[in-house]
Each structure stands twice: as C-alpha cells, then as structure tokens.
Amino acid sequence: MNVTLNSVLLPDDLVWRDEFEWAPVEQVVTPTLSGALLVEETAKPEGQPLTLSGHCSRAKVQELKVLEAQVAQLMTLTLLDGVTRTVVWRRPGVVATPLYELADPDGDHPYALTLNLTEIERGE
C-alpha cells in the first residue's frame, strides 16, 4: 500500500504524531452558583488534527509546496492502513528543514518533513 496525498506519493515511513491526542467528544464543565458541576458533551465527527512527520528529498518538498499553494482544496490522504481520509491543510501545511545545510542543494538533498493536516472525513 502506498502513502499518498492526492496524486503525490509520500514516504511510507511517515509517523502520525498526534493520532491519539484528539477526542471525538467535546466537553465543557461549568460550576454553578451552588457548587454543582454542569457537564455538557457534544460529538465532534470531524476535525481531527493529522500531523505526519518523517524525511524526504528536496524534490518531494517542492512537489508538496505546489500542492500546499492551492487555496481551500479538499485532498485525499491514504496511509499504510489503506483507509482514505479527506483532509485540508492546517497552515502552515508543509514544514521542511534540511538535515544539513548546503548553499545549493540538489533534488535528492534530505529534509525533515512535517505535514500539518486536518481530517474532514474518513473513508473505508
């Protein structure tokens, strides 16, 4: 199974850093004047942050920056689990830093990559 964002092939070793930091239920706890607690909960069916990090080439960063430059685009993300997810960028969407600095890096130069996305819908 390939890891893809729209038609862009991504490195298959990307790690979903915040996979378990999101809860599908929003909770607000309000103390009343008597000291009792009023607890309200609401389901959040969408909006899960999806932060992927790993390494890739400079050429891949450039390809992703072109995708990031598109405004309000819904994208399809497929991870190794085979599940497709509809996502949008959580700006800045592509954060990349060279692993070591060169004045004139070529397309194969290695970069640390972070993709900041928000899941809108999960497929099968």
Name the descriptors:
124 residues, mainly beta, seven-stranded antiparallel beta sheet, two-stranded antiparallel ribbon, 1 helix, 9 strands
Report on the structure:
The protein is mainly beta and 124 residues long. The protein has one helix and nine strands. The strands form two sheets. The chain has a seven-stranded antiparallel beta sheet with strand order 2-1-7-8-9-6-3. The radius of gyration is 18 Å and the shape is elongated. It starts with a strand and ends with a strand. The model has no long low-confidence stretch (mean pLDDT 94).
Summarize the structure.
By secondary structure, the chain is mainly beta. It is built from one helix and nine strands.
Beta-strand proportion: over 45%
Low-confidence stretches: none
Helix content: under 10%
Mean pLDDT: 94
Write out the strand line-up for the largest beta sheet, numbering strands in chain order. Answer: 2-1-7-8-9-6-3
Give Rg in angstroms.
18 Å
Q: Per the principal axes of the C-alpha atoms, what is the gross shape?
A: elongated
Major sheet = 7 strands, antiparallel
Number of strands: 9
In whole angstroms, how far apart are the ends?
A: 14 Å
Order of helices and strands: EEEEEEHEEE
Can you count the helices? 1
Q: Decide which structural class fits the backbone.
A: mainly beta
